[in-house]
Specification:
Layout lengths: L1 H37 L8 H10 L2 E3 L2 E4 L3 E12 L12 E11 L7 H5 L4 E6 L4 E3 L15 H12 L10 E5 L13 E5 L15 E4 L1 H6 L10
Antiparallel strand pairs: 1-2, 2-3, 3-4, 4-7, 5-6, 5-8, 8-9
């Protein structure tokens, strides 16, 4: 009888220990899962929260600058040209590039390109090997037209003026950028950047705020003026 009681007690203790071990494992697993769910980055955000934040920040998606509240701006084409005649700030004969933008208004009201950027403007830079330089010239596309080509001159001037036109909601237009690009060198790519390099406002995703365009692409590209502002 004592032997049976001893065996029964041993079985009961064994079952109790097994149950405690199982509960302990479950609690440990729950704590691990909870720990994984609550893990955050240096900004105190979970991966899901960080992803949501980045979607709301201004950033490049491939070659397209995304302004979540306002629209999209993409540098789609370039046109190699030469400074002509008088009235330009660059030396006559200098090589420059015209820039075509494809702009979409994703807001619910008519806005222009500057409204879309809302202070976070697209900048054109290039490295000279030791520093980053601004390569946007003060000259405009019409400075690349000879004095006797009045038709092309008028076409460029009209296109430059269209830059300030309001774009209707959900509409996409092609626009000629009102300034030309004058590269510092032909070795390093053109850097297209949103806002300032040291921006810490939180409005811009600083990991996706710039793209690089090889000089070879600038040279092989062209602008169809029949499509600009049409």
């Amino acid at each position: 009888m004592k032997k049976l009681l001893t065996i029964g007690l041993a079985v009961a203790v064994s079952l109790t220990l097994t149950a405690c071990s199982t509960n302990s494992s479950k609690n440990s697993s729950s704590e691990q899962i909870s720990s994984k769910k609550e893990s955050t980055n240096k900004n105190g955000l979970t991966k899901k929260q960080q992803a949501s934040l980045e979607k709301m920040q201004i950033h490049f998606d491939d070659t397209k600058a995304i302004y979540p509240d306002n629209g999209e701006i993409e540098v789609t084409n370039f046109q190699k040209a030469t400074i002509q005649g008088t009235g330009s700030t660059s030396e006559s004969g200098s090589t420059v590039y015209l820039v075509e933008l494809t702009v979409k208004n994703t807001s619910k009201k008519p806005i222009d390109v500057d409204d879309i950027q809302d202070g976070n403007t697209i900048k054109f830079n290039q490295s000279d090997g030791s520093s980053i330089k601004d390569v946007e010239s003060q000259d405009s596309p019409d400075n690349t037209v000879s004095d006797d080509d009045t038709d092309l001159y008028d076409e460029y001037v009209n296109a430059e003026n269209d830059y300030d036109n309001k774009i209707l909601p959900n509409k996409t237009v092609k626009i000629l950028y009102p300034s030309v690009i004058q590269l510092d060198n032909t070795d390093n790519p053109l850097i297209i950047q949103i806002g300032e390099p040291d921006d810490d406002s939180g409005d811009i995703n600083t990991k996706k705020n710039k793209i690089k365009i090889p000089v070879s692409k600038l040279n092989s590209s062209s602008i169809n003026m029949n499509e600009v502002t049409k």
